[in-house]
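Curious: why these numbers?
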Amino acid sequence: VITYRKAPLKNLIDFYKELRDHNYQIGIVPSTVSLSRTSHLINFFSGAKVRVGVKSIDGKKNEMEYLLNVKSDFEWDKNKLHQSERNLDVGRQIGCFISEKEKNEVLIHLSEDEKKFANEYMESNFPDKNKLIFGFHPGAGKIPNRWDKEKFIELIKLLNTKFNCYFMITSGSIDGEISEYVKSGLNKSGITCAILDNTPIRKIGAVIRKLSLYITNDTGTLHVAGGVDANVISLFGPTHGYEWAPSGKNKFFIQSPTKDINDITVESVFNKADEFLKSEYFVKETEGTC
């Protein structure tokens, strides 16, 4: 990994010198999120003979495409392609293909220590193995990606009434106020809820993997949940679920009918959770585990 630093000038000179010292043969600029001038310049100055990227995206011209010598026009939004497929599209131009089996094997592989942490956390907080365990992430780094905390409380109350289950919240460094608000609101209704915070992200992933279902905003832990192959329902407002949500038989997203995430109803999330828990996939997954 070579870290690019914009300033001071000496850092920039040292960066490009180190870049050239590696004698790269192929440089790829995916441009799946934005058309970055800096990324194209770094790619060009790397000295790579083969420079791969995009010519245009959904009709928007890449002004830096002249620095590439392998490029194509792509219609990713029109075809509603996932980010993973967009990246693979760029690589396919030079014959980089991977099978569905290989895609499905791209996971976060947990260590024995991380698995042990998750087992001990579950046994300590959720001793009754016959109960379902729901996890939630009501926070998010971007405010427009946050489903209203009152909706999370209402959803959990509905799930509790139907399933009489355990609940937990994952909480990042900026989520404390929201997490405590949800927990307090549930306590007023006699519902207990554990909060997992101040924990390394991989250990959080190990815990999420053991949940019956994880319901989360579009934020970092969503992608961790996808990486450990957890059962997930993700909520999307201004961003596109078809582009960012983890994919798989046990992963679902609910897209707001508008750009406002709070136009997602509590009933729609509850119904999706109920539907999944009745599904053949979930029934088979949990056979013999209780």
Remarks:
- The longest strand covers residues 50-57.
